[in-house]
Amino acid sequence: MLCSAMLRSQFSVLTHNSALEKSKDALTRERLPSVHPDPDVERAKAGMKCILLRPEIATTPHSSVVLAELAQQARISIIPYQLKLDYDYWTYHDIMSSILPEDAQGEIPSGFAHVGHVAHLNLRDDYIKYKSIIAEILVDKNPGVRTVINKIDDVGEESEYRTFKYEVLAGPDDLNVTLSEENCTFQFDYSKVYWNSRLNTEHRRLVSSFAEGEAVCDVMAGIGPFAVPAGKKRIFVWANDLNPDSYTSMLDAIKKNKVHDYVRPFNEDGRTFIRTAVAELAKTHHAVDIMSKASRKDKNAKAEVVKTIKQPRTFQHFVMNLPATATTFLPSFIGLYPPSVREMLPADAKMPLIHVYCFSTKSDDNVEEGYKICEELSNQLQCDMKPGKMSEGKVEIHDVRDVAPKKRMFCASFRLPEELADLEEKGAVTMHLDVTQPLPEIQNIVAEAHKVHGRFDVLINAAGYILEGAVEEASPEETYDSLNTNVFGVINLTRAITPYMRQQHSGTIAHFGSVGTITGFSESLTLELKDFGIHVISIEPGYFRTGFLNPGARQFTEKRLKEYDQTSVGAVRNALNGQDNNQLGDIEKGCKVIVDVVTKKTRKEVPLRLVLGSDAYQMIKDKCESTIALLEEWKDVTCSTDHSWDAGSSNAPGWLGES
Asked: Which InterPro entries does the record cross-reference, listed alphabetically (predicted)?
C-alpha cells in the first residue's frame, strides 16, 4: 500500500507533479508513471488524478514541507493508494530472476540476435532445461519477435554456406524474414543464408571508407549487407556468393533497393571469382547518368543529365567477409595483374586495398593478435606482412567484435603488394586450372600452357585439401569430392602432360605423397616412364608452416560423432589444431630443396621418394621398422601360401617386376 497526493483540480497535474518530483516526494520508477487516475471511480470519470508518493511518506502531510504546504492550501489530500503491477509491467529479466532457481541466476540468458521477427538464441547447456519458458517470455516481452530459435551447432557445420541447425522454441517455424539495415530492405530465408545483425556497425564502417564512383569486389557477399548500401552511395560493386540461396536473395535486394545500376551479382566460387572478375572488369565499359530531379513548378520540364559516373576498369577494394576461411583465398591474388590486364588499366592505377576478415585470440591491446594475423597473411601470400598503417605499406588491424570468451573477429586491411601483382615480370605465366574439370578441358588448358615455352620440364602435383573425419563420419559425396581433387585430379593432370614429356624424352613429375594413393601412383609411373627419360618423384613432407591446416584447406565432415572424441580420431583432431601455425617445417627451405632436386642442382639422380622434415623422417623410419617387425613375426604364415618348388629350380618365379 502506497500513499498518493489526491489533486483538488484536474488542471494542476503538471504543476504539482513537477513540484513533488523536485522535492523528491513523488514516486519515480522506471516504466512507472507517477500520475494515475484517482482511485475513486466517480472522480476518475471526472478526469481527476493523483500523484503516487514514495513509500517512505506517511499518511500525514507533516513529513514533507512541500506536501504540508500543498495540503494546508487545500490543493491536495494525502490518501492511501493500492498499486497493482500486472505481467505487462515486469521485464524479461525481472520475470526470469523470479522463476529460475538461485543456482541459475548467475548469467541469465538475455542476449539474442534479432533478425526480422526471429530471435536467435545460443543457449548454454545449463539453460537448455529452461528453453521453453525462456522463449515464451522473450516473445511476450519483445513485440517484434514471433519466432524464437536456438542454434544447436556452430555456424558452418551444417553446410559450407555458413548456415546452421536450429530448433524452434516458440512461435511458428517460419524464418522468412524482412528487415532494414542502412535504409536498405532485405528479405530472405534465415535458415538458408547467413546473416548477422551484430555486424551492422562493421558494415557501416567499411562502406563509409568507399568513395562514390569506386569499384568494389565483394568476394563473399552473402545477401548484400556491404554491396547494397554501397550501391546506394553510387559505388560500383561486383558482389559474389557461392550459396545459390544467398545469390537469389541478393538479386531481390538489388531490385527492392533499386541499385541495379551499381551492383552486379554473381554466383561463383570465390577463388575463381577473384581472378575472373579482375580480368572482366578491365575490359568492361559501364557508366551511370545522374539525372536532375523533376521540377514541381514546371511539370513539362524534362530531366537533364547532371553528371555521369563511369565504372573504373580496376577494383579499388576487395572485401572478403568469411572469417573462418577468408585468408586461405589470398593466394588467388598472387599474379593477379599480369601485363595482359595492366595494359587495359590507367597508367596511374594503384593496387587494390584488400579487407579480409578473420578470427584470432583476445588480449587487452590486440598487439599479439596483430602479429598472429600478419603471420597468417604472410604464409598465404608468401610475402612479409607487418601490422601498422596502410599508408606505410603495412596491415591495419581493426577489432570488429567478440565472438566467444577467447575469440575475436578482426578485419585486416592492406594494399596488395606490387611484387605479388605481376608474376610474369619474374618469368611466370599464370593460368586458371581446376583439376576437377573433365579431362578434355584439362587437356585444352595444358595445350595452351605448352604453347608458351614449347615444353614441360617439371610437373608438381600438390594435394588440394584435407578432409578431416572418420570413415563413418564422411559422406559418400564428401569422400568423392576429396578423391576428385586429391587423387583423380592429380591423375588427370598427369595424363594430360605425360604425352608432351614422352615426346621430348625428358621431364620430372613430382607428387606430394601425403596421400597414400598418390605414392602408389608415383611408383607405378616410375616403372612406366623410366624408358622415356621421365623421372617421377614422390615428395613426402612433414608438417610445414603453411595454411594447409587452416579451415578451407582443411575441410570438416558435416557429420560429427561424439563417440570418436576420446579415440585416436579425436587425438588426431587435437594434434592438427595444435600443429596449425606451429609446424616445424620452414616453407622457404622446403621449396628450395624441391626446386634443387627436381632441377638436378644437387647433381644427383631424382629419387623415387624425397622426405622433407625431421618429423617426417622419424614417422617414416618408425613405420618402416614396425613394418619389418610385422613381416618377420608373420614370415612363416606369409610364406606358407606359396606353391611348392624344388630348391634352385629354374622355373621358380621371381617378383613380377624383376627382369
From this structure: MeTrfase_TRM5/TYW2, NAD(P)-bd_dom_sf, SAM-dependent_MTases_sf, SDR_fam, TRM5-TYW2-like_MTfase, TRM5/TYW2-like_N, tRNA_Gua_MeTrfase_euk
Q: How far apart are CA 129 and CA 145, in angstroms?
A: 21
Q: In what order do the strands lie in the sheet with 609-612?
A: 458-461, 507-512, 534-541, 609-612
Can you tell me whether residue 141 is helix, strand or coil? helix
Residues of the binding site for S-adenosyl-L-methionine: 203, 241-242, 269-270, 321
For the entire predicted model, the pTM comes to 0.68
Distance CA 48, CA 567 (A): 76
**What is the model's pLDDT at position 297?**
72
Contact between 102 and 96 under an 8 Å Cβ cutoff? The reply is no
For CA atoms 628, 629, 633, 634, give the dihedral sign.
Answer: negative
Region for residue 83 given its phi and psi (left: phi exceeds 0; alpha: psi -120 to 50; beta: otherwise): beta
The predicted structure's pLDDT at residue 187: 97
SS3 248: helix
Encoded amino acid at 597, one letter: V
| 511: nearest Cα among 521, 503, 502 | 521
CA 152 vs. chain centroid, Å, equals 18
d(CA 282, CA 313): 5
The 10s digit of each residue's pLDDT in 74-104 is 899 989 999 999 999 999 999 999 888 888 8
Q: Are 46 and 10 in contact (CB under 8 A)?
A: yes
Q: Give tens-digit pLDDT for 396-449.
A: 999 999 988 889 999 999 999 988 877 666 667 777 788 888 999 999 999 989
Q: Which of 409, 247, 401 is CA-nearest to residue 326?
A: 409
* Residue numbering of the annotated binding site: 203, 241-242, 269-270, 321
Q: How far separated are the first and last CA of the chain, in Å rounded?
A: 109
The CA distances from residue 557 to 110, 326, 560, in Å, are 32, 19, 7
Residue whose entry in the numeric block shows the C-alpha cell 587495359: 344
394 and 442 Cβ atoms separated by less than 8 Å:
no
